[in-house]
């Protein structure tokens, strides 16, 4: 009886391990991203253009963009180089162009509703996201 319990425990451990190992990263041919940078110290919010990333890495199960914080740091570093520090930067992404357009408009509308926010746009010529490979 005792050996049967150990055997069942080992089987469940192997199954649990195979489930966690099956989560993989995959490279998609393209993804769409944009960034938003805001500060609590002023009323200026910056939006980047919607940009196409070639060969973006996503989580296979959740379609979550991997290393998204690295993309945010790219935008944050851009502002620090322009001597505009202390920005909170977010990056939004989608795998389809129509989905990213909806996200862009939704976030932009939140700032437009608040009448005392000044929105500035950053063109792709001034700032462009670069691909980040997962480690």
Structural class: alpha+beta
Overall pLDDT metric: 85
The number of E-state strands comes to 5
Strand content: 25-35%
Major β-sheet annotation: 5 strands, mixed
Instruction: Please give the alpha-carbon distance between the first and last residues.
Output: 45 Å
Number of helices: 3
Whole-number tally of structural domains: 1
Order of helices and strands: HEEEHEHE
Low-confidence stretches at least 5 residues in length (pLDDT < 50)?
none
Mass-distribution shape: globular
The proportion of residues forming helix, as a percent range, comes to: 25-40%
Radius of gyration: 21 Å
Description:
By secondary structure, the chain is α+β, with helices and mostly antiparallel strands. It has one domain. It contains 3 helices and 5 strands; from the N terminus they run αβββαβαβ. The chain has helices spanning 2-21, 68-81, 97-113; strands spanning 25-38, 44-48, 51-59, 88-94, 118-122. Strands 1, 2, 3, 4 and 5 form a 5-stranded mixed β-sheet that branches. It is globular, with a radius of gyration of 21 Å.
What tags apply to this protein structure?
single chain, 135 residues, alpha+beta, 5-stranded mixed sheet, 3 helices, 5 strands, globular
What does this entry show, briefly?
This protein is of the alpha+beta class and 135 residues long. It has helices at 2-21, 68-81, 97-113, and strands spanning 25-38, 44-48, 51-59, 88-94, 118-122.
Set down the secondary structure blueprint.
Blueprint: H1 2-21, E1 25-38, E2 44-48, E3 51-59, H2 68-81, E4 88-94, H3 97-113, E5 118-122
């Amino acid at each position: 009886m005792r050996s049967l319990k150990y055997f069942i425990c080992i089987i469940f451990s192997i199954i649990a391990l195979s489930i966690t190992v099956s989560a993989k990263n995959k490279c998609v041919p393209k993804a769409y991203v944009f960034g938003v940078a805001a500060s609590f110290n002023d009323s200026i919010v910056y939006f980047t253009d919607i940009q196409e990333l070639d060969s973006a890495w996503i989580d296979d199960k959740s379609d979550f963009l991997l290393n998204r914080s690295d993309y945010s740091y790219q935008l944050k570093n851009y502002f620090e180089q322009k001597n505009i520090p202390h920005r909170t930067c977010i990056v939004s992404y989608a795998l389809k162009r129509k989905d990213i357009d909806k996200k862009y408009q939704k976030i932009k509308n939140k700032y437009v509703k608040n009448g005392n926010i000044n929105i500035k746009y950053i063109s792709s010529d001034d700032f462009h996201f670069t691909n980040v490979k997962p480690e």
